Amino acid sequence: MFSGIVESMAKVVRVEHDRTNIHFTFTCPFADELHLDQSVAHNGVCLTVVHLDQTKKEYTVTVMEESLRRSNLGLLKEGDMVNVERSMRTDGRLDGHIVQGHVDQTARCIEARETDGSWYYRFEYEASKEMLERGYFCVDKGSVCINGVSLTVCEPDIKGDKGYVSVCIIPYTHEMTNFKFIKEGTIVNLEFDILGKYIANYAKYLKQI
User: Fold this and answer.
1) What is the DSSP letter of 177?
2) Is residue 53 located within the same domain as residue 127?
3) b/e per residue, 43-65, with b = 16+ CB within 10 A?
4) Largest CA distance in the chain
5) C-alpha to C-alpha distance for 119 and 98, rounded to whole angstroms
6) pLDDT digits over 85-142, tens only?
7) How many domains does the chain have?
8) Tell me, what CATH number does 195's domain have?
9) Rounded to whole angstroms, how far apart are CA atoms 43 and 101?
């Protein structure tokens, strides 16, 4: 479990394809503190550390086909930067919101602009009836996780088979995460609020009774 408070960015140093899986090797400031089997969120995707080279401050994770299909990780190449967060401690404060590290789908940035000190982003995502019934949507002032960052929803909307969500980023978050690389056309990961997903699925089951 995570909180959506990004600790750092990690740089892709190697990409190795293995049948339907991809092995990614990263380097980041806390790589020498990791251990095997530890969970780390990469752009919001929970992945397990499978190899360590602490002398180089590098570690490797494996991404399976399902995660590649639902996320933007398959687009990564050497030199790209991802947001990383280690799993949440139970003896600390929950500064963001409950994030599972289970990305639901991707979204495309359709607007990115500086707004006199902060940054405004608007994203578009697929929103079929089936997805909505599973809770894949946003509500105003609710929470959403974008590329592993816990953010407050503004201007949510659904038009036809498309959903829309906007977020505002303070300068610190813009500088410390890969939001500073996001522009129109950039593909990002979305994880919708788990509480909303439970409620939406419960409502669907009640209709079937």
Assistant:
1) S
2) no
3) bbbbbebeebeeeebbbbbbbee
4) 58
5) 24
6) 999 888 877 888 889 999 999 999 999 999 988 999 999 999 999 999 899 999 999 9
7) 2
8) 2.40.30.20
9) 9
